[in-house]
TrEMBL record:
Domain Fe2OG dioxygenase: 192-299
Name used for this protein in its record: 2OG-Fe(II) oxygenase
InterPro entries, per database record: Oxoglu/Fe-dep_dioxygenase_dom, P4HA-like, Pro_4_hyd_alph, Pro_4_hyd_alph_FE2OG_OXY
Residues covered by region (Disordered): 70-95
Gene Ontology MF: a single term: procollagen-proline 4-dioxygenase activity
Superkingdom per UniProt: Bacteria
Record-linked PROSITE patterns: FE2OG_OXY
Entry cofactors: L-ascorbate
Length: 303
């Protein structure tokens, strides 16, 4: 406390005084030594400081010190902290089969990519299944929404000009069958899947490139992540074939998957990070229309 003595002569003056560097250093040293703020305040008062000036000095000093510590920690951390990878769903294609039997169907393996992990499958759905899903979804379509990053709710977004709806998991016979097929293909429990979403794009409608995982830095993600953890994989199923446009693009790797009725495009992302290269979007439909069903897979049971 000696170092402050030169700055205080009487109570009137103290109220005008600035907080000297020495006083700041002393306050920080007390805090680092674990001395309670009330004890520091008492020490300041007993050496002649007015209570209100001392409180202000304490508050400002400790706040500035905290801010400086945060800034130092941020500067020392890697610029872009990458989360640890987690297990993801995947299809049994290690030995490059041309066809795989998934429960009741033979499915063709058309294209695979390692990074991002993308698998394009032919004939994942029958024509009849595609038609049934469109017929069930059609009357329930509404303007598509996206997740509101602030609240975790949903909002209409200009980046997404399709119309859409969600089925409950296992809502009808065909939905249940398709969900079991997805679970068998990817060795991932049915319970970890969100309800199937169906999207309908008219000419000009699109879904601009985006990530499907929830970025934990967004305040709204916490409540979403409580319902089964992160999304770790997406299976898109094309329910019809637009005449032109409507491909699913992966801009980081220049890949475009053609939307062919009955085909499916699977991709996974083992962390909520751009390094997964899982950025993707639905190109604008140029001619005709596009119907697609999306199954998002979570780390754990989705409730
Ligand atoms: O319509 C598409 O091809 C992409 C859909 C999509 O990106 C999604 O549902 O997350």
């Amino acid at each position: 406390m000696q170092s402050q003595s030169s700055t205080k002569t009487n109570a009137g003056q103290q109220r005008q005084q600035y907080i000297s560097v020495e006083l700041r250093q002393w306050i920080v040293a007390q805090a680092q030594a674990g001395v309670a703020p009330e004890t520091v305040l008492e020490a300041m008062k007993s050496s002649g400081w007015h209570e209100d000036v001392a409180i202000k000095a304490l508050e400002e000093t400790l706040r500035d010190h905290l801010n400086q510590q945060v800034a130092e920690r941020q500067a020392a951390a890697p610029a872009d902290h990458e989360p640890q990878p987690v297990p993801v769903p995947d299809a049994p294609i290690a030995d490059s089969p041309s066809k795989i039997r998934i429960l009741d169907r033979d499915v063709t393996v058309l294209t695979t990519m390692k990074h991002p992990r993308v698998i394009v499958l032919g004939g994942f759905l029958s024509d009849d299944e595609c038609d049934k899903i469109i017929a069930l979804a059609g009357p329930r379509m509404a303007r598509s929404e996206t997740v509101d990053n602030l609240t975790g709710g949903s909002e209409v977004n200009v980046a997404r000009t399709s119309r859409g709806m969600f089925f409950e998991r296992g809502e009808t016979g065909v939905i249940d069958r398709v969900e079991r097929r997805i679970a068998a293909l990817l060795s991932w429990p049915v319970q970890n899947g969100e309800g199937l979403q169906v999207l309908h794009y008219q000419p000009g409608a699109e879904y601009k490139p985006h990530y499907d995982y929830f970025d934990p830095v967004h305040p709204g993600s916490a409540s979403i992540l409580k319902r089964g953890g992160q999304r770790v994989g997406t299976l898109l199923m094309y329910l019809n074939t637009p005449k032109k446009g409507g491909g699913t693009i992966f801009p980081d790797v220049g890949l475009e998957v053609a939307p062919i009725k009955g085909n499916a495009c699977f991709f996974s992302y083992d962390r909520a990070h751009v390094n997964t290269k899982s950025l993707h979007g639905g190109q604008p439909v140029i001619e005709g229309e596009k119907w697609v069903a999306t199954k998002w897979l979570r780390e754990r049971e989705f409730i």
